[in-house]
Amino acid sequence: MTIHLVDIHHTTHTCPANPDPHPVDTRRTVLAVIDGGPCQTPITIHCGNTTAQVPCGRHEPRERQCGACRTIVTEHTITSTHHHEVAA
């Protein structure tokens, strides 16, 4: 399985139009990608007189993908910054 390790940072603020804190920006930083390796169960595709094999991760839904094609995103750190806006 391919694993993506990410950091997430949310920026929120409050303003006169909406006094509840709400998100204005979300940044994701990819820290590492660990490759799952080659597909273990490629799928044969037929198109006219041509056949080709593609990785199951490009064709099958997640529950039918092999372990090498399945992707997992792991959140390493989630941080947030809050900004207050004042009415003029």
TrEMBL record:
Protein name (record): Uncharacterized protein
Organism of this sequence: Phytohabitans kaempferiae
Lineage, uppermost ranks: Bacteria, Bacillati, Actinomycetota, Actinomycetes, Micromonosporales
